[in-house]
Amino acid sequence: MLRTQLSRLLAVTLGGAIALATPAPAGAEDTEPAVVVNGTFSSPTVPEGKTWASRPEGWTNAPIASVTRAAHPKGLQAAALSWDTGPTSTSTQLRGVRTGATVTLSWDDNPDSCAKQGDAKRTYTVTVAGDNNQPGNFSTNDSTGKANWFIGRTYSFTAAEDAPKITFTSTTTTNASCGPLITDVAAKQTAPPLGSPQTPKQNDPCAGDAKDSPACKDVAGNKDQISKCPPSNKECLASVAGNGKTEKDGIDKQTSAVEDFGKVPRVQDPNTAAAGLCALPNALTDEAKPGDAVVPPSDWWFC
User: Fold this and answer.
1) pLDDT tens digit string along 171-188?
2) What is the pTM assigned to this prediction?
């Protein structure tokens, strides 16, 4: 009876250990923040009095809607998935995400005020590389002729590459030049387990076919000879590794060369020669005042 209970306890314990070692499955909650560059599309800032600015930093292609045009509850700018000529897309890379990580994106969307009451919802996709990552198809809240934000869309995927590229693309077909707005793009991930360290054989440059190269044969022969030498037998070790005479002679020659270089007579004092080079940098910094820089120009260089 006792043996049966112990067996069951061991099975439960091992089963728990195996479960702890298993990577989190896709769809499990991702909790570790992953950086999304300029996810609120705050850069560049739309100039005061303007409605649009050019491409957002860290993203491709899309125009940026001003805080007033976006009318987001948090007062954010937004990226528009359309130009005057029709639908467009915008992409960025998640630089801190490695292959195998599970990732959950989140963001907000809005049909934009150019979509009037009764117009169809604005539609778009979210895509990421990987055969198993199906495109996400989304539509905004109803078009009302004013802001109508949906807060907290999500899309989950497993990274098929390091720094995966995510792409938002408008699929709106009616009044296509009035595409959806997106903003507050964020990501969380569950990073994959770190790879196991390489074994010594994987790190050995003489492993595999390389073992028959002349250099590796010499190394193997020396290892074999050294293994036969008692650690305290200097003569035996020296017969394999040498006594270092060649290396010592080389060091002596370099030391002599450095000493001889210092003895070479100079026509001009080095400080005098350096002073002659100061005219240009001094001309560039003469107008600088002490408060113009944290470190004063006088401390930048020799001059």
Assistant:
1) 999 999 999 999 999 999
2) 0.58
